[in-house]
Amino acid sequence: ADKGYQAAGGSVRTPFKRHRYQPKLSRRQKAVNRAHARIRARGERAIATLKTWKILAKLRCCPRRATAIVQAVLVLHHVETSRCSG
Fold it and tell me: Measured between alpha carbons, how far is 63 from 59 in angstroms, rounded to an integer?
């Protein structure tokens, strides 16, 4: 999650947030934030890619079947993009 979900707790991971009267973040905290941003960016790109496929907006089936369909869509997308770019 992003910095807006600081109190989410549980298995939700959020980056460190500097508070108003607190000094700068430590090097370790900045490194953790960079690693978190890298992981989060991959998820954001995947979601943006899936949103380009209009068929998924009309998808009405069980989550297990939807997962298989989404995986197939991503494979087709990657095959198509690698074919066009190289």
Answer: 10
Amino acid making up residue 30: K
Distance CA 19, CA 21 (A): 6
Q: How far apart are CA 20 and CA 7, in angstroms?
A: 17
Residues 6+ positions from 2 with CB-CB distance below 8 Å: 14, 15, 40
Q: What is the pTM of this model?
A: 0.55
Instruction: Tell me the domain boundaries of the chain.
Output: 1-51, 54-86
Q: With bands split at pLDDT 50, 70 and 90, how would you rate the model's confidence at 67?
A: confident
Q: How many CB atoms lie within 10 A of CB 15?
A: 19
> 40: which residues sit within 8 A by CB, 6+ positions away?
2
Write out pLDDT tens, residues 18-56. Answer: 878 878 888 998 998 898 888 888 888 888 887 887 777
φ/ψ of residue 36, rounded to 5 = -60, -40
